[in-house]
């Protein structure tokens, strides 16, 4: 029977050896993630996460089945690259689908898009083109083109 009783957080923090093991494990998985990022094509970098490494098996979480298929095409290169660079004892890779990876990535893209400042100013050259087109346009369109051209700075 396993010993899975809840423990008080302060008792865990007081055990320095346990905290150092957790830190070492975190650093190792972080280094493994960096190596995998170098080996994979750019679009795949945002679609996976290193979940664990145990007993020679690397466990990767992937955002969807379609990205899993794409990642499996890279599996042989990934295995050989990881073995050469960081884990010679790696025997296989297991995959799990975790849709939260995709939602986290899309939320970060949305947040970065909100930080983009949209400018309502057009160039002088564009204003000249708009005025030239407005000369031969119908009256209603002409007014709108001239109004648009007035945004030039």
Describe this structure in words.
This protein is an alpha+beta fold and 153 residues long. It has helices at residues 9-14, 16-39, 42-45, 65-73, 75-85, 100-114, 124-135, 139-149; strands at 48-54, 57-62, 92-97. The protein is 60% helix and 12% strand. A hairpin with a 2-residue loop joins strand 1 and strand 2. Helix 2 (16-39) crosses helix 5.
Provide a count of the helices: 8
Outline, from the CA principal axes? Answer: elongated
Uncertain segments of ≥5 residues (pLDDT<50)?
none
Strand content: 5-15%
What is the strand arrangement across the widest sheet? 1-2-3
Overall mean confidence score, pLDDT: 84
The run of helices and strands is HHHEEHHEHHH
How many individual β-strands?
Answer: 3
Computed Rg: 27 Å
Helix content: 55-70%
Give keywords:
single chain, 153 residues, alpha+beta, 8 helices, 3 strands, 60% helix
Task: Quickly describe the structure.
60% of the residues lie in helices and 12% in strands. It is an alpha+beta fold.
List the helices and strands and how they pair.
Elements: H1 9-14, H2 16-39, H3 42-45, E1 48-54, E2 57-62, H4 65-73, H5 75-85, E3 92-97, H6 100-114, H7 124-135, H8 139-149
Parallel strand pairs: 2-3
Antiparallel strand pairs: 1-2
Helix pairs in contact: 2-5, 7-8
């Amino acid at each position: 029977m396993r010993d899975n009783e809840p423990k008080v957080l302060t008792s865990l923090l007081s055990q320095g050896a346990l905290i150092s093991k957790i830190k070492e494990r975190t650093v190792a998985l972080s280094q493994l993630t960096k190596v995998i990022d170098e080996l994979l094509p750019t679009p795949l970098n945002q679609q996976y996460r290193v979940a664990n490494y145990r007993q020679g098996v690397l466990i990767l979480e992937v955002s969807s089945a379609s990205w899993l298929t794409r990642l499996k095409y890279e599996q042989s290169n990934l295995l050989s690259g990881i073995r050469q660079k960081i884990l010679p004892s790696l025997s296989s890779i297991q995959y799990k689908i975790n849709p939260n990876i995709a939602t986290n990535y899309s939320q970060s893209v949305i947040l970065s898009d909100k930080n983009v400042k949209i400018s309502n100013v057009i160039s002088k050259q564009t204003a000249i083109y708009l005025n030239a087109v407005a000369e031969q346009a119908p009256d209603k369109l002409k007014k709108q083109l001239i109004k648009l051209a007035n945004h030039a700075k």
